[in-house]
Design brief:
Rossmann fold, 4 domains, 6-stranded parallel β-sheet, binds Fe(4)-Ni(1)-S(4) cluster, oxidized
Length: 635
């Protein structure tokens, strides 16, 4: 664990404040966990049955296996894929919730939601083979939603639709040949839990392949979540806003939108716009919404809502003393928020049946009554504002300008200004001309095994210096937002000559009121599907399989089970994936070799672990160089 807690100046100020009031934050709790148990840290602790926990103790007679006889490779493989099952469940359940909502909109059952982007609806319908000619919007929306819901429990053995429609043909062949193409999201996840039950599969390779099948369900669930969210709420276009704790306003009612699912947060944005008057009547200058984690990314992309902070520093938003309510839905929400809120006037409002925090305020969100639910939450915030103690308010004067909203569509729209017929060629031509080396996707969380946000920023600036085109999602994107990498100044400060030239051409063509950013913010974690579609377009245009395109992914501070699932499908889809923390596969050299070496022979994609951000960036550049060199040789 690093001694330095964070590179974020605003966070540093708030951590000092926490110390002053004696509140132990996640940074203190991370320290309390050190030193870690080596068994757990390397993945050789098995807790799958009640005879356990079993550890691998090679020096004791009989200790080199679990009580049932499971070897280190079985234990490590099982533990790893169970992370994937958790991650795939989270993303796909999020997608299911959106699909159900779209279905109910199409059936006329929900008055507060609409089909906002009919163009996207038509594109998605065509992509998945639904007839659009001469049919009404709601009829088509119903078919799209039904097709999405069918992914979860269909009885017929047909490859999942959002995978087959979001992969290159050559990649589909790889997935089918390796027998990891799923036909039913729920089935694959349940089967993986069954496969890893005590006394079941002990073959690490077979277990890993089962894990990859579930990881592809994660991809499917997130791809349909992205598509259907765009249909319901609109596909983001470039927006200008700001990020970091300085986006919290002392004179306004501040409401943080935190979690992942846009179903509630979108409605809160709408309701807040209607309720400015009520806030003013309470003596505030208005309502100020800010985002944390991926719900924040969703409403940033579509509504230009500012970012307050990312995962590791979510508690610190409350420490500003000016946060009136934090509305949370699902995933990545720290249970500690409530006890901290007790030191202040802040209302923590949980909203989903599967995410409650003891002692916090629970308002069951009801899509059938969405706008009223949202208004109720905002009224709670206005009430809390009235109780705010001005003496406790301490907002760091730290924020940066953010240019975001780069859905694949809005990115391609910029390329279109240069090449109307074949926009992706703008990117691939720049790669083939050697102006840029390729594309790197930054994804994932914060992980306090390292210094908060340091890996994100160091790797991005190193790659920029080496002329790599950068896209980002999740808390990685939020780190960039806070640190000024999502604006034009970032390009001037950090980009190499080639990348600068490429950006200059894009800027001239885009004709936005502001310069394009160094890193293109593609949205939330489920929007990693947007980045994969970019990769697929590159592959098609370059006439290559995904295993050969100059595209890499990195999760510099990976933390959640979802990050494991995302990383795993990236590998299956041919992408090299860097992870900036040491993961619990290292306890079995066999499993570790499979995911870092053998995977490349089979899929073209592979993992590598590197905690040093400079070394990690150098390796990513090396991989891009190698792929470019091979492609040049092929010609
Ligand atoms: Ni879904 S999963 S900490 S909020 S990116 Fe952020 Fe993003 Fe990881 Fe969670």
């Amino acid at each position: 664990m690093s001694e330095k807690r964070t590179i974020d100046v605003a966070a540093t100020q708030m951590l000092d404040k926490a110390k002053e009031i004696g509140f132990l934050t996640t940074f203190d709790r991370a320290k309390a966990q050190e030193p870690r148990c080596t068994f757990g840290n390397t993945g050789i602790c098995c807790r799958i049955c009640l005879q356990g926990p079993c550890r691998i103790l090679p020096k004791k007679p009989g200790g080199n296996r679990g009580i049932c006889g499971a070897a280190d490779y079985t234990i490590v493989a099982r533990n790893t894929v169970r992370y994937i099952a958790g991650g795939a469940s989270a993303h796909s359940d999020h997608g299911r919730h959106i699909a159900e909502t779209l279905l109910h909109v199409a059936e006329g059952k929900l008055k507060d939601y609409q089909v906002t982007d009919t163009e996207k609806l038509m594109r998605v319908a065509k992509k998945i083979g639904i007839e659009t000619e001469g049919r009404g919007v709601m009829e088509i929306a119903k078919d799209v939603a039904t097709a999405a819901l069918d992914e979860y429990g269909r009885m017929h053995e047909e490859d999942l639709t959002w995978i087959t429609s979001n992969c290159t043909d050559s990649r589909l062949e790889v997935l089918r040949k390796t027998n990891i193409m799923p036909t039913n999201i729920n089935l694959s996840i349940a089967q993986l839990l069954h496969q890893t039950h005590v006394g079941n599969d002990s073959d690490p390779i077979n277990i890993i392949f089962g894990g990859l099948k579930a990881a592809l369900c994660d991809y499917d669930g997130m791809a349909l979540a992205t598509d259907l969210s765009d249909i319901l709420f609109g596909t983001g276009v470039p927006v200008v806003t700001e990020a970091n704790l300085g986006a919290i306003k002392a004179d306004k009612v501040n409401i943080a939108l935190h979690g992942h699912n846009p179903l509630l947060s979108q409605i809160v944005v709408k309701a807040a716009r209607e309720m400015e008057g009520e806030a003013k009547a309470a003596g505030a200058a208005g309502i100020n919404l800010v985002g944390i984690c991926c719900t924040g990314n969703e409403v940033l992309t579509r509504e230009g809502v500012a970012i307050a902070t990312n995962f590791a520093t979510q508690e610190l938003a409350i420490l500003t003393g000016a946060m009136d309510a934090m509305v949370v839905d699902v995933q990545c929400i720290m249970p500690s928020l409530r006890s901290l809120a007790e030191c202040y006037h802040t209302k923590i409002v949980t909203t989903m049946p599967i995410m409650k925090i003891p002692g916090s305020y629970h308002l069951a969100f009801d899509e059938h009554n969405a706008i009223n639910s949202a208004k109720e939450i905002i009224r709670l915030a206005i009430d809390a504002y009235k109780k705010r103690d001005a003496a406790k308010v301490c907002i760091p004067d730290v924020k940066n300008t953010v240019v975001a909203g780069f859905t694949l569509e809005s990115l391609l729209n910029i390329f279109k200004q240069i090449n109307a017929d074949n926009p992706i060629k703008v990117l691939t031509d720049a790669i083939e001309a050697g102006e840029i080396k390729g594309v790197a996707l930054f994804a994932g969380c914060n992980n306090l095994k390292g210094t908060h946000d340091e890996n994100h920023i160091t790797i991005a600036t190193e790659l920029a210096k080496n002329d790599v085109f950068l896209v980002a999602t999740g808390c990685a994107a939020q780190a960039f937002a806070k640190e000024g990498l999502l604006n034009g100044e970032g390009v001037q400060k950090y980009a190499g000559e080639g990348l600068k030239k490429f950006h200059a051409r894009l800027n001239a063509a885009a004709k936005l009121t502001t310069e394009l950013p160094l890193v293109f913010h593609m949205g939330s974690c489920v929007d990693n599907s947007r980045a994969q579609e970019l990769a697929n377009m590159m592959a098609r245009e370059m006439g290559l399989d995904n295993r050969d395109i100059p595209y890499v992914a990195t999760a510099p501070e990976a933390m959640s089970e979802k990050a494991v699932a995302i990383g795993s499908w990236n590998v299956a889809l041919g992408n090299p994936v860097h992870v900036g923390v040491v993961v619990p596969t290292v306890g079995s050299s066999l499993v570790n070799d499979v995911v870092t070496k053998i995977a490349e022979d089979v899929f073209g994609g592979f993992f590598f672990w590197e905690t040093d951000p400079v070394k990690a960036a150098a390796r990513l550049v090396e991989i891009l160089d190698e792929r470019n060199w091979k492609n040049a040789m092929r010609k």
